[in-house]
Amino acid sequence: MKTKNLSIITLIWGAIMTFSSCAPEDNTGEIIRGCIDMNAVNYIATANQDDGSCVKIPVKQNGMFFKFTATWCEPCGSWGMDAFQSVYDANRGKIVAFTVQTNDDLMTGRNQPTFQAFSTRWDYSGTPNFVVNNTLLGTNYYQAASDISTITSQTPTIGTGVHWTIGAGANAGKININAYAKAFSAISGEYKMGIYIIAKKLVAYQNGQSDNYEHHKVMIGFAGSDPWGETITSSGATADQVFHVGHVVPLESSWNIADIEVVTIIWKKSGASWDFVNATTN
After folding, report:
1. Integer Cα distance of 186 and 43 in angstroms
2. Predicted TM-score of the model (pTM)
3. What is the DSSP letter of 187?
4. Predicted confidence (pLDDT) per residue in 87-118, tens digit
5. Domain boundaries, the chain
6. Listed residue (224, 214, 226) closest to 118, CA to CA
């Protein structure tokens, strides 16, 4: 009788141990954290516990829309902001949208290089000025809708995605960024991938409005030393080829983590400058 009871207890204990495991392990009993989704571009075959870092890049063509603006520019905060917001609201999930500050009190050493590069590429001549994809619209922002529709209906050649976290330990107070690009078909030429820090909401002065005006989608910085990003290929790529760029970006004390988003943009070399190709849509 005692032997029978011991056997039953042993079976029950074995079942409990089988179903109470906290995490899958490999054959050595080691827990390996990483992306375990085989459809992600950063899938790790040896990982056995998901760490939330998976990045999937859909075969999707997105557009880009931004506004040259300034806190000293009265129209920028009146009809300019309304125009920008209307285009963004009508195209959520289709475009990456942001504002580029123009020699104002929201310009810092972290976003000034972007203004310098973009204002040269799009021949900036005043504020507010709008840009859609590779076209400077000036104040003619209502043309953006048709240009966005045109590009988003195209078949993409390359796409991009990003995963970011606030670091810990040695990287405490910094943004850990892993950005990826994937060629959907064979491509040729030189490509860069830019990583940009966007403040979804930033409260500051705006001429003609107030000292507590709510600015939206302000580009406040970028990763690396080049506002166009890092070269991911100088000679093209084959279909399904994946590229990775990683950065650790220090946080500014004025940045509100809850209102930050990180976006990536793919650029292609065109003469002495760069053309927009595709982007994330956080």
Report:
1. 22
2. 0.88
3. B
4. 999 999 999 999 999 999 999 999 999 999 99
5. 2-50, 63-279
6. 226
